[in-house]
Amino acid sequence: MNYKDVVEAVCEIIIRAQTELPLDVVNAIRRAYESEESEIAKRNLEVILENIEIAKKSRLPICQDTGIPFFFVEIGRELSLDFDIKKAIIDAVRKQTPSILRPNAVHPLTRKNSGDNTGIGVPVVNTDVVEGDRLRIAYMPKGAGSENMSQLRMFLPMEADKIKKFVLETVARAMGMPCPPIIIGLGIGGSFDVSAKLAKKALLRSLDSMNEFELEILEAVNSLGIGPMGLGGKTTALAVLSELNHCHTASLPVAVNIQCWANRRAEVIL
Q: d(Cα 141, Cα 101) in Å, to the nearest integer?
């Protein structure tokens, strides 16, 4: 494995994530369409499915907001790299802007656009050392419409029973702005910053992997009746996916990271 291999691999997963949704997401939208009773909601889901098909066939972005690039990198401890993996990812992002990626990265105060989706802390690259000798790179673009609806709250340690209500309040406040049906990433524990990272990392999971706790929250969210695009219907969310960390005995951080229906993600293992 060399520097060029990684740059090319990252370029490929950027294109794949931007133009083709994972099968678990597509199937969840199809199930929502088949079970929907509202004519308006059904038509919205039909248009979403048409959009997915057109993007895949034409190799064009699923959404005009190609997001801020987030990467989760796992490096096997037996793997030896003689180059900077983060630099390789940055170079790949630059190569794909503006051919597939809209320039979205701006300075937080001056709002000056870097023009190539890079800048202070962007792309966001999270790295972990794991067992083995492989390099795994997962890419997830995050658009602003859904990201802006996300919330974080520091609960008291005895308030775990309030987590579901917090998720419901966050979704109810968002209404149609994050382009539902949404996927909800839930980060529980860790610390103020760790819970937010957990919530985003949860969005990489398959929508088919929900546990009983997550399914209970999903049912409550869908009972809100916000529906596709906020115009009413049975499906407000497609999934609730959570990640947990141990935390300090005196705190309970909880983060809700909302994702739109276009839960774009792709990965490569080298």
A: 10
How far is it, in rounded angstroms, from Cα 89 to Cα 71? 9
The answer, yes or no, to whether residue 1 has pLDDT greater than 90, is no
Summarize pLDDT for 213-232 with one digit per residue, the tens: 999 999 999 999 999 999 99
Give the domain range for residue 7. 3-269
Position 124: which residue type?
Answer: V
Which DSSP string corresponds to 70-128? EEEEEEETT---SS-HHHHHHHHHHHTTTTTS----B-TTT--B-SSS-BTTBSEEEEE
The amino acid occupying position 153 is R
Look at the chain and report how many structural domains it folds into.
1
pTM here? 0.94
How far apart are alpha carbons 242 and 141 in whole angstroms?
19
Sheet hosting strand 124-130, strand order edge to edge: 124-130, 68-76, 135-142, 266-269
**8 A C-beta contact, residue 204 and residue 72:** yes
Give residue 154's identity as a one-letter amino acid code: M
Instruction: Render pLDDT for 161-185 as a digit per residue (tens, 0 to 9).
Output: 999 999 999 999 999 999 999 999 9
Q: Over the stretch 76-99, which tens digit does the pLDDT of each residue have?
A: 999 989 999 999 999 999 999 999
The DSSP call for residue 119 is B
Tokens of 107: 């300075």
Provide the CA 9 distance to its chain's centre, in angstroms.
20
